[in-house]
Structures are given as C-alpha cells and as structure tokens.
Design a protein that fits this description.
By secondary structure, the protein is mainly α. The protein is 64% helix and 0% strand. It has one domain (3-75).
C-alpha cells in the first residue's frame, strides 16, 4: 500500500495518527520526491496550501475533516 492510499483511508483521529507515523517514514525514504525538506519550508508550504484551499472554498465554515487534514500534511511536502 502506497502512502497516498493511507492518506485516502484517513477518516478518524486514530487513522490520522497512523498516517503521521507513515508520513514521517516516507519523508526519509522519498527525500528525492519531497520539495520542502526543512521544517520551516514544510510549515510554510502547509500554511500556504491551507490558505489557498480556503480561497477556493470561501463559504466553508467547518474546519477540515481528518481526511482533509491528512491531505494537507501530505501535499505540503511538494507545495510551492
């Protein structure tokens, strides 16, 4: 099972905790596929990704689902 399959399966808090552990391991294995290697770059990309997604859906008054949070964490690796 690939990392994005695990991301797609996140539906609960427990799923997200498992996904975070796998994402951490995947960072080390796929460094060549990760654009934002430093914590600073990663958090900046995460903030930008979340901001841009809010602009795409400005009427959303509900916070992200567990699955959406997992997707934000995953895609922040390569977001610019």
């Amino acid at each position: 099972m690939e990392i994005w399959d695990h991301m797609d399966a996140v539906r609960t808090r427990e799923d997200l905790i498992k996904f975070l552990s796998l994402l951490r391991k995947d960072f080390a294995v796929r460094e060549d596929k990760t654009e934002n290697l430093t914590l600073d770059d990663y958090l900046e990309a995460l903030a930008g990704l979340m901001h841009d997604s809010e602009e795409e859906n400005p009427d959303s008054k509900v916070g992200p689902t567990w699955h959406e949070l997992a997707a934000f964490l995953f895609y922040a690796r390569t977001y610019e």
